[in-house]
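forwarding from the other thread:

> can someone predict this with nicotinamide-adenine-dinucleotide?

sure thing
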Amino acid sequence: MFREQWGETSERGGCYSQSNRPQKEASYAGPGGGGGAREILALASEEGQGVGKARILSSLQGVVAPKLVWIKFQQEAVFTSVTPPITSGNENERLHTRPHPGGLRESLEGGVFQRLFTLRFQDTLRRCMMLAMQLLRGAVKHTGRRPQCSVKQLIPVVPGTTSTSQQLPAFRGTQSSFCANTDSDNPRVLITGGLGQLGVGLAELLRQRFGQNNVILSDIRKPSYHVYHSGPFVFADILDLKNLREIVVNNNISWLVHYSAVLSAVGENNVAVAKDVNITGLHNILDIATEHGLRVFVPSTIGAFGPSSPRDLTPDLCVQRPQTIYGVSKVHAELMGEYYHHRYGLDFRCLRYPGIISADSQPGGGTTDYAVKIFHAAVKTGSFECNLCSGTQLPMMYIDDCLRATLEVLEAPADNLASRTYNIHAMSFTPQSLTQEIQKAVPHFKTTYDVDPVLQAIADSWPMALDDSAARRDWGWKHKYDLPELVKTMLSHITVSNRRAQDF
Ligand SMILES: NC(=O)c1ccc[n+]([C@@H]2O[C@H](COP(=O)([O-])OP(=O)(O)OC[C@H]3O[C@@H](n4cnc5c(N)ncnc54)[C@H](O)[C@@H]3O)[C@@H](O)[C@H]2O)c1
């Protein structure tokens, strides 16, 4: 049978046909011949085929030459099934049963084909398994109102088995009391974009409430010494889905506060980046929150409204046609979050923050940044150049109110939440009325105006005051800081921290 097979192959005119290689055949005398090995190598090099062909020949011949034993070993897995065993029979039989050189190409092709087939089969199997996993995930997402339960079964979180670099080690803080409160009933919170104006303050508030180790701050920037040593911190790029998923799983996260964003003024100068961070990043957050059954908080903004929205006492539900990429991305976030809530049962919660004013942290490039900078200027230099018109009225809030509102809405019983997106409001003022309030404490303080037309256009399209009656009714929202209280607090904080800095 072998004879027929190999013979038939040679008839097809393979490149090693009997007629064109008669003298070489004599050297294929039998296994173990050192001369055979030499011939094989000579043949291979003469054919310009390199050692590859010699390997095959040696394998077929069973040649035992020091170099070729290894070669045979290398090729065995690939060619075994196409190599006829030539270990018995007399010389004549071997001469006829040995693979004819004309059949070698066939052998080679058969072997390569088999190898390719094996690789392709393995590859196909791997792809099938990946596809099956994707389909399973998709099926879970698309069929149930509560996908997180099913997904949990697919991706079990086994405490103690997750020890990759993304799992945070025990907190590095020096105060042992920080580690004391690790109550398992408390949520485990991840804050994205936590090194901006609001994240560090929120982490502080949540850590007081849920325990130091239960709140993980994250960002793509390096934290200051103080922030690094005041609680768990991890690098998290919201555009890296796998990294995010790893952090959520390895740290058993149950609540996610999504603060990463590119704000209005910066966004208008970097539309592509704003699109990526504010839209693609949000998709990652919603997908992960849904997969793992997280409660997710995403702040929206007064910037989610536009010139066609009612500008005074803007209600929760009205026309929203913002004219900035920031506003568009925030409307998108509101709608996507609510959609995931209705479609998949995601526990999505969202507040539309006004402009937030803080003493200890710098604003990140929004249209209302002037309302922070003005206080530092009042204390340091006694004068301020404002980039908005003196009469531009916008809704504002002191940071403590904003962070407390965030905690309150996160803790509100789901049944109380008639809506998933709420306006919150505290005060509205203009640069002029703010200047007048500051002058009560710093009489020589002066504001001049150098209006930025881009920022002014944005501000002119935003509400002057929000109607937040639904938040007050549904979960008891109540602001503590009005304009006089805000000015008093800001000036006092900044004065104290400036003095401390000078003393240091
Ligand atoms: N500060 C305000 O006045 C205000 C008002 C309304 C709404 N908000 C919203 O509140 C949230 C927090 O605001 P903020 O003032 O702290 O913002 P910020 O601009 O000060 O901070 C945003 C943070 O996001 C991080 N970030 C950017 N790209 C990232 C990425 N790819 N992955 C992870 N992190 C990334 C930045 O490093 C930065 O630390 C934002 O969603 C913002 O839209 C803020």
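The radius of gyration is 36 Å. thats all i got for now
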